[in-house]
């Protein structure tokens, strides 16, 4: 008797906190105000090196052995007062130079006076004064901590001290000097709040202690009162200030050079410089395009673990189903990517990314396909029910306008869904930059490929606000999972990117672009926005060592792991964060290797805390399974599936469904089956035919004394009746019961036969026969012997028509040389040596349940049909390409037929069949119902308490068991409570402590 089970009920659980408020993003020294000139820079010093070697200083190409410099080689605060130091603020590293005054009364030279660096540029550009030049630098007067007292005067002035251009002699903080044709030098510096030139001409600065971006062009000009005309541009402005300058005689080096420093003997000063660059000729500056900060951005270059940390925003990405980091291969030097296997790998961006109601939206990706011309999806927005709301993908067929290999985009708005095709024939195996923007007000949808606008191959018409976009994932779409790599992903929830912004994204990495935003003011390696989120200070670096939740992890540890520093158990699986090390290797109770942000690391339906990895199943609270493997014993069946069906998930010899009986794994398709053999009556009593030119069955049973060895017989185990068919006679033997084959013509839809050029769905359960109820045979195997499919199109079961036959058979290695492990063989071609369509099974003497969809496939490379095969409750099929071949002895009079048997002449074999069913059309399997259903009336989540209450129709005096699954799949049920007593016509139950990372949950109720 089957146990009554309720229908499935599903809820979506958004068990996350309130919306996050982001900290402001602060501009620092690294944001360039201007783009490089068309031909680039002759040389650029980036302020990030300060090596002390008199002839190879700073980045190795400078000298401070020039007759002027007296640096003692120490940083500020070490050695004599003043010096040269590298300083890092947020993402910016710069150099600070301080001359604290004339120390000669106390310190012998070198004594940190006249600190001055020169660099020879003569090989690249020997005549800058004659031909004109452009320099670009960023500097400021040094203030604040990190400066020594001024020698002989006292504390360094709070507002800093600039350095004048000494006596107009052409030496300053920044200097360009030409030695060819006579010494000539022009210099720039800061003094009294002004940026000044050699002759005293100046430009007022708002605050000389703040960074100033300075672009200067210089050309020879004697008409304006000097030798040269300088035009100075400041902080991104394209309005220049012109003034005459007169080159001076300076020779701190023997060849044409650039210089920076504090070259006066008596004066004191200090300045910071972030970079100093020079180019040939007068280059008119072009302002750097501004880029609106994205809502969220991920480099996908993390390199290890299963979490993609954001570079902007707070939403992390979760690498799932085999996605993994490649720390080396990215679209820009020093960047990495995430690898997608084309099967199920994804990066899941969580529910913080809610864009419902947005009128404007932009998305930027870098992608690299593993193969060109493939149907693959790489972006999929989802609603709160985990259903996709269109996507972004490649379409190799190009469904419209006769295109091929297009990019197809679809998105859902309040006005309805829309899609469009773009970029005909563009998919490559190289890195590509893809940007799409949506403007619901203008009804405009634009796609950019590698920075260029792509014209649509069909019109795109879309207006209105976005709808149902709660979160998205990378690596999936309607055309299948992405196979390749992705990097540098950013999303804008209320902004349409301009062409200039797209160009910026195409030419620079997110790391470079957003180095202009300081995410870490106190330099404690924790972004400010994360500190604000969890109540830490962005002005106190010491709190990086704090442990607010007492789990022995510091705040910095928790940031790097992506865990919550205020919760000792972030994912709610009762395991403290410190033992969930996310290494992927189980070491012991104190180092479990599991993901601290995921209650069920291996997605097998069991929480990490019950998977103790002892190798011994004790109970559902101590399963002994490996929390890092969803099939701990390697028998091909998920751990929770085995527990739900009563087998041992730690023992490969213990598998579910060993007794047959009932539709355990899969339910009926809509409308039921067209034909069904249930294994409880001899087939010749059910209009099955064995007069087909092949069969030699004498219609005796296997254990009958009056027949030949072998035959067909009905047996019963428990409440299951099944058919056993045995062939014991090899080629050349005498008597009957060899080549046993029974067939049945099938007529569907009021007498119209099933056409084999249309899809067909099969459902069957079988096993190899063992035990005492088998006739003797000289070579019989103790573990059963499956007759192989020795001829094309035949098998233990199958179907046939005038177009060809298709057979399935369980086999063992000893039964055939075409395979080396127990397997279900799929036969569609004549020669065994040509077959590679084997589905491995751990033990063919245990019941194996299969669901198969066979469909014509004109694009198949190795056959004519595709076969999608589901096994023992699996939710994803394995797909094969097969060919069909004719064989009259299994197709009878060439009408569409089902067949069962061991049709080989020279092979013995025996198998048991519980049922064999067929339906015209292609139907994917659904979870087995398991019996009559009753109604779950409601499921109500309580997100504040991580719980849910369900109510169902009930019978008086009954008792119920409540089960839960992460998927609508009967093989994944886990009992959460039993002995729930009926409350009358309806009964309720509340599940508590639902894992915090749960998005969806399925319930069913069983009568005990």
Describe this structure in words.
The protein is elongated, with a radius of gyration of 38 Å. 4% of the residues lie in helices and 32% in strands. The strands form ten sheets. Strands 17, 19, 21, 22, 24, 29, 30, 31 and 33 form a nine-stranded antiparallel beta sheet that branches. Strands 3, 4, 5, 7, 12, 13, 14 and 16 form an eight-stranded antiparallel beta sheet that branches. The protein is mostly beta strands. The chain contains seven helices and 56 strands. Strand 30 (444-449) and strand 31 (452-454) form a beta hairpin.
Q: Bin the strand percentage.
A: 25-35%
Give helix % range.
under 10%
Mean pLDDT across all residues, rounded?
80
Major sheet details: 9 strands, antiparallel
Oligomer: single chain
Overall spatial form: elongated
Q: What is the number of strand segments?
A: 56
Helical segment count: 7
Distance between the termini: 12 Å
CA radius of gyration is 38 Å
Low-confidence stretches: 1-30, 657-663, 750-754, 828-835, 929-933
**Helix/strand class:** mainly beta
């Amino acid at each position: 008797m089957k146990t009554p089970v309720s229908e499935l009920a599903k809820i979506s659980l958004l068990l996350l906190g309130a919306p996050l408020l982001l900290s402001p993003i602060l501009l620092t020294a690294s944001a360039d105000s201007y783009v490089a000139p068309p031909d680039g820079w002759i040389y650029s010093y980036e302020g990030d090196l300060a090596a002390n070697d008199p002839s190879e200083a700073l980045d190795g190409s400078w000298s401070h052995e020039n007759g002027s410099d007296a640096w003692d080689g120490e940083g500020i605060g070490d050695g004599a007062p003043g010096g040269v130091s590298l300083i890092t603020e947020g993402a910016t590293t710069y150099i600070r130079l301080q001359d604290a005054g004339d120390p000669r009364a106390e310190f012998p030279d070198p004594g940190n006076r006249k600190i001055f660096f020169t660099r020879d540029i003569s090989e690249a550009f020997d005549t800058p004064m004659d031909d004109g030049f452009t320099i670009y630098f960023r500097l400021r007067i040094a203030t604040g901590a990190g400066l020594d007292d001024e020698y002989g005067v006292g504390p360094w002035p709070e507002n800093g001290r600039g350095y004048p251009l000494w006596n107009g002699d052409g030496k300053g903080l920044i200097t360009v000097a030409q030695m060819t044709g006579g010494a000539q030098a022009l210099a720039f510096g800061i003094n009294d709040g002004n940026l000044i030139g050699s002759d005293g001409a100046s430009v007022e600065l708002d605050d000389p202690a703040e960074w100033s971006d300075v672009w200067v062009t210089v050309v020879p000009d004697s008409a304006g009162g000097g030798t040269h005309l300088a035009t100075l541009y400041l902080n991104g402005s394209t309005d220049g200030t012109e003034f005459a300058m007169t080159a001076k005689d300076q020779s701190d080096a023997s060849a044409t050079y650039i210089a920076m420093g504090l070259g006066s003997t008596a004066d004191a000063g200090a300045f910071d410089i972030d970079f100093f660059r020079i180019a040939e000729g007068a280059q008119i500056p072009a302002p750097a395009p501004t880029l609106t900060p994205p809502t969220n951005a991920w480099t996908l270059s993390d390199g290890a673990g299963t979490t993609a940390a954001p570079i902007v925003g707070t939403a992390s990405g979760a690498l799932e189903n085999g996605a993994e980091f490649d720390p080396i291969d990215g679209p820009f030097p020093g960047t990495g990517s995430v690898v997608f296997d084309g099967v199920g790998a994804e990066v899941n961006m969580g529910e913080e990314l809610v864009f419902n109601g947005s009128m404007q939206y932009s998305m930027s990706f870098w992608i690299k396909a593993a193969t060109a011309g493939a149907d693959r999806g790489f972006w999929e927005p989802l609603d709160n029910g985990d259903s996709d709301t269109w996507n972004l993908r490649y379409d190799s067929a190009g469904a419209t306008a006769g295109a091929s290999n297009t990019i197809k985009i679809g998105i859902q708005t309040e006005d309805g869904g829309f899609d469009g095709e773009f970029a005909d024939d563009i998919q490559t195996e190289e890195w590509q930059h893809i940007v799409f923007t949506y403007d619901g007000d203008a009804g405009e949808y634009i796609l950019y490929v590698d920075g260029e606008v792509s014209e649509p191959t069909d019109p795109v018409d879309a207006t209105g606000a976005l709808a149902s976009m709660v979160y998205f994932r990378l690596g999936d779409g309607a055309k299948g999972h992405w196979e390749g790599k992705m990097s540098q992903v950013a999303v804008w929830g209320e902004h349409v990117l301009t062409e200039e912004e797209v160009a910026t994204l195409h030419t620079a990495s997110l790391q470079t672009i957003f180095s202009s935003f300081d995410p870490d003011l106190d330099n404690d390696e924790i972004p400010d926005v994360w500190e604000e989120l969890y109540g830490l200070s962005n002005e106190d670096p010491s709190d990086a060592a704090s442990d607010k939740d007492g789990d022995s992890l510091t705040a910095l540890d928790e940031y790097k792991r992506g865990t919550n520093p205020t919760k000792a158990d972030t994912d709610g699986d009762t395991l403290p964060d410190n033992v969930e090390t996310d290494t992927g290797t189980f070491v012991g109770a104190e180092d479990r290797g599991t993901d601290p942000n995921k209650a069920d690391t291996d997605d097998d339906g069991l929480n990490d805390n019950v998977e103790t990895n002892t190798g011994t199943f004790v109970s559902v609270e101590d399963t002994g399974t490996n929390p890092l493997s969803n099939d701990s014993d390697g028998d091909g069946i998920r751990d929770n599936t085995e527990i739900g069906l009563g087998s041992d998930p730690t023992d490969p010899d213990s598998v579910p469904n060993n007794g047959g009986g009932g539709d355990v794994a899969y339910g009926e398709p809509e409308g039921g089956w067209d034909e069904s053999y249930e294994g409880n009556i001899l087939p010749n009593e059910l209009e099955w035919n064995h007069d087909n030119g092949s069969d030699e069955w004498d219609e005796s049973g296997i254990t009958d004394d009056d027949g030949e060895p072998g035959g067909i017989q009905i047996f019963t185990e428990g409440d299951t009746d099944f058919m056993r068919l045995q062939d014991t006679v090899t080629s050349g033997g005498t008597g009957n019961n060899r080549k046993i084959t029974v067939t049945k013509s099938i007529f569907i839809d009021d007498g119209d036969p099933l056409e084999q050029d249309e899809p067909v769905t099969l459902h069957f359960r079988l096993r190899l026969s063992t035990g005492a109820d088998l006739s003797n045979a000289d070579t019989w195997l103790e573990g059963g012997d499956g007759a192989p499919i020795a001829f094309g199109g035949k098998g233990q079961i199958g179907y046939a028509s005038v177009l060809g036959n298709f057979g399935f058979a369980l086999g063992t290695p000893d039964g055939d040389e075409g395979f080396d492990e127990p397997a279900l063989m799929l036969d569609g071609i004549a020669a065994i040596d040509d077959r590679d369509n084997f589905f491995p099974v751990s033990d063919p003497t245990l019941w194996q349940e299969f669901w198969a969809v066979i469909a014509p496939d004109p694009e198949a490379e190795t056959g004519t049909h595709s076969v999608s095969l589901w096994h023992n409750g699996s939710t994803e099929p394995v797909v094969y390409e097969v060919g069909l071949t004719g064989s009259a002895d299994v197709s009878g009079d060439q009408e569409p037929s089902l067949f069962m048997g061991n049709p080989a002449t020279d092979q013995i074999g025996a198998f048991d069949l519980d049922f064999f069913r067929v339906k015209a059309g292609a139907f994917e399997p659904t979870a087995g119902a398991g019996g009559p259903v009753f109604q779950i009336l409601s499921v109500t989540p309580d997100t504040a308490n991580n719980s849910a209450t369900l109510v169902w129709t009930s019978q008086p005096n009954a008792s119920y068991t409540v089960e839960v699954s992460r998927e609508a799949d009967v093989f994944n049920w886990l009992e959460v409570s039993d002995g729930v007593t009926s409350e009358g016509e309806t009964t309720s139950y509340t599940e508590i402590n639902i894992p915090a990372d749960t998005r969806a949950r399925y319930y069913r109720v069983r009568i005990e």
